[in-house]
Batch of 2 targets.
Target 1
Amino acid sequence: MAHAPSFLSVVFVVRNHADALETLLADATQVVSTMVRDYELIVVDNASTDASIAVLKRLTGETGIANLQVYALTKEVDIDTASWVGLESALGDHVAVIDPMTDDVRYLPNLLEQARLGADVVFVCNEQRPRQSLVYRLAFRVFHWCYHRFNGINLAKEAPPYRLMSKEVINFILQHPKPVITYRHLPATGGFARANLRYSEPPKPQPRKRLRDNIDRGVGLLLSTTRAPMRLVTALSLFGAVMNLLYCVYVVAIGFFKANVAPGWISLSLQQSGMFFLISLVLMVLGEYLMNMASATQQGPHWHVAQEFTSARMTRRERLNIEEPPLDTPVVVNGRFS
């Protein structure tokens, strides 16, 4: 394979993989070095508790692996945050994000080929996932159904973590106030040219994911990328206000058309329904206010140039390359001087 004239950065997020780090990075070096002329391998250690740091320090020595950058985090964070640590520090024209336990680094040349064909972001989905508990799989399906329903995109299939992005895409994400959150979905919804690839490889054995942490992460992602949950709150508040108003009308109608009404029932019912009507209106207004405030604080740039083209022929440049003759110089027309 011919070397591409570009700089490629590859980001790995690892945690407690001390035994596999050297083999992993050696394989990645063998693959990447045959693809591009310049590259860097960025390892983000997500607060490992084993000997991973010692192994990485040895691998960054003079006899270790070339072009290796290591960022060791002080505490464990979610995978998106750890990935963004590497993305933010990457210098390449294209940046790939790989989970070494799930994704196959040997598939990376296919991503770069799609980038050469004009894709700003390339997503790759491994059809074989690690085995998880039944409850985790159920919560996984519920979250992705809700996200697809609210945002129109399936994160697992259309924007998986294994991806290759151009520097323009990363610069676009950097303009948002919370790039760690928007990093996951924005490349697929920002209007960039994208490609989606699939392959099937059995993932490496790894510990099962904790459902509690992933629920917190999923809820945070839903609340930060869509108005739907807060819109549901305001809709329920409006429904409560309307129902209480109708109940007030019902109570007044009973007072007019029925004679044997219990003493105090009408006044008490009107009082309660009126209070709940006001409370529902207050909740609706607060919900709309909070939604608008959240949208304002999370709003990204108003515009971004995803691609820029220039005509191959510029008449202005053509005119600049022509020297106009003086006015008194004779001009030949059909073999005659004029």
Note: Residues 265-298 form the longest helix (34 residues).
Target 2
Amino acid sequence: MRGRMQRVDERRTRMPHDEFSLSRERLRGTPFAQIRHVAQTASTNDDMTALLGEPGTGGLTIVADAQTHGNGRRGRTWEAAPGAALLFTTALPEAIPSAHLWAVTLWTALVVAKALHALKIPAELRWPTDLLVNANKLAGILCVSRVNGDHAWVGCGIGINLLRNASMANAIEPPPAFCDDAHPVNRDELLAGILTTMHADLALLQTPRRIRVEWEQAAHLAGATYRIIRDGEEHPFDAKVLGLTDDGSLHVMRADGAYENVTMADCRILR
């Protein structure tokens, strides 16, 4: 009887399979070692926003199998079947100057692109927050922050499509891209790659202008043509991109030769 009870107790106390064991192992000893995995939440960004700036939460990652109210830019939603996408938010380990907030999204996009390329996913950057494969959206980024005067605590929210789901893909226009269209990867492998790249490139956040230059180069931005639609306007316009300004805005030349700066907050890119 004693042996039987011991076996029952072992079954009850046995830890569940850790899907993100590779990430935990690779990030051990770094500021990004904390990984909190949940089956479902409304939004990892919302969860992280409530924690930003609290003691012990710097470097924390919250990763979810599914989100019921995942948010993209400008109030759009991010939908994915449970387990079919990598959905997470990572808090920067330390507060940054509030004036540098504009650079965090660009930095995050660079990090994600590097990690995807290392796993044979040919992701391309599109200003301001998208990563594309074959001109279709593979991943999106939405950063959240808590600002206190000159300092800000930041969470980098990231959603990446991994596994193609035919019914969902066919219901979205324009159609999304998926990692397994190019090369299959699993969530743990990709999360580990992104977090280790964040750790390696953390010092870059101290030089926002360098982030701007690296992003321009990685995106092959100079000379690209974007179709842009501003808030409150019905008709988009095509413009030749000249580069980014020191606050991350898009510096463009319209077809009529007029120059202007387009901010992340007041427009969206159609292509």
Note: The longest helix spans residues 101-118.
